[in-house]
């Protein structure tokens, strides 16, 4: 790689880390609290790998060659993920790397300011097609999808997983973590059917693994989308793309 391209990639890296999807500082999230977990409990977990950066977003494997993630993870104008890492809970450990063939963002994806503390992402869903089929094992399995427009009742216990901070202001861990959260309603943040709110003052999503799964008994019900930086103090829930709302879109566009 010549010097010109190295400089270009370094500039891209700077902008990617400081202006994810042009969504502002609240546009990218991490799991905090919760506990360390093993990949066998979330074998659909996928790490999106970016040039020079490595892991920067998560996703969920839904069949042998398709990953579901957040649209804002793929919307940066300068830098795109080139591969995914599967089958490992440890970012510094071994796993299976598969290159990305193509991807598609929802055609109505958009980002706007909800208020001075929140960035709102609408229709924040995308799918990735892989260059080759993955081989299923105990550590690599697809997650189930919900029925179109299936409802999640307020108070339902859910699980969010990702590579994580252990506190809102802590350093990012390379080890997979999961946390229990509770489905919630929020008139300002979850103001349309494409969004699902869930939160927990002791654990949940503040900054980091955008695109990762919100799970209910092994079913993908949400995709980490946006929230408040200091969600512990604010008490606001985090917001997820509501997968059931997009079930027909996934079938028609991704063929799954």
UniProtKB/TrEMBL annotation:
PROSITE patterns in alphabetical order: TRYPSIN_DOM, TRYPSIN_HIS
The record's listing under InterPro entries reads: Peptidase_S1, Peptidase_S1_PA, Peptidase_S1_PA_chymotrypsin, Peptidase_S1A, Trypsin_dom, TRYPSIN_HIS
Q: Which GO terms describe its molecular function?
A: serine-type endopeptidase activity
Tell me which residues make up the Peptidase S1 domain. Answer: 31-255
Q: What is a biological process (GO) this protein takes part in?
A: proteolysis
Residues making up the signal peptide according to the UniProt record: 1-23
Gene3D superfamilies with a match to the protein in the record: Trypsin-like serine proteases
Output the SUPFAM superfamilies linked to this UniProt entry.
Trypsin-like serine proteases
This protein's UniProt keywords: Disulfide bond, Hydrolase, Protease, Serine protease, Signal
What does the similarity note say? Belongs to the peptidase S1 family.
Name of this protein: Trypsin-7-like isoform X1
Q: Which organism is it from?
A: Diabrotica virgifera virgifera (western corn rootworm)
The organism's taxonomic lineage, starting at the top: Eukaryota, Metazoa, Ecdysozoa, Arthropoda, Hexapoda
């Amino acid at each position: 790689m010549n010097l010109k391209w190295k400089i270009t990639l370094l500039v891209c890296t700077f902008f990617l880390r400081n202006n994810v999807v042009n969504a502002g500082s609240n546009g990218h999230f991490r799991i905090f609290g919760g506990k360390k977990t093993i990949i066998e409990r979330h074998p659909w977990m996928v790490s999106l790998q970016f040039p020079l950066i490595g892991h920067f977003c998560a996703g969920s494997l839904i069949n042998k060659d398709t990953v579901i993630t957040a649209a804002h993870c793929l919307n940066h104008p300068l830098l795109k993920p080139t591969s995914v890492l599967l089958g490992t809970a440890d970012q510094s450990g071994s796993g299976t790397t598969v290159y990305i063939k193509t991807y598609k963002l929802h055609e109505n994806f958009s980002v706007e300011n909800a208020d001075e503390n929140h960035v709102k992402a609408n229709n924040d869903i995308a799918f990735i097609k892989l260059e080759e089929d993955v081989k299923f094992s105990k550590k690599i399995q697809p997650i189930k999808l919900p029925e179109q427009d299936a409802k999640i009742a307020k108070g339902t216990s859910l699980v969010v997983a990702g590579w994580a901070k252990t506190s809102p202001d802590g350093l990012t861990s390379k080890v997979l973590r999961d946390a229990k959260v509770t489905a919630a309603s929020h008139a300002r943040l979850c103001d349309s059917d494409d969004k699902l709110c869930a939160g927990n003052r002791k654990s949940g999503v503040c900054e980091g693994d955008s695109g990762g799964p919100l799970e209910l008994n092994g079913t993908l019900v949400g995709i980490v989308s946006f929230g408040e930086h200091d969600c512990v103090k604010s008490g606001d829930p985090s917001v997820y793309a509501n997968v059931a709302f997009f079930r027909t879109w996934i079938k028609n566009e991704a063929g799954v």
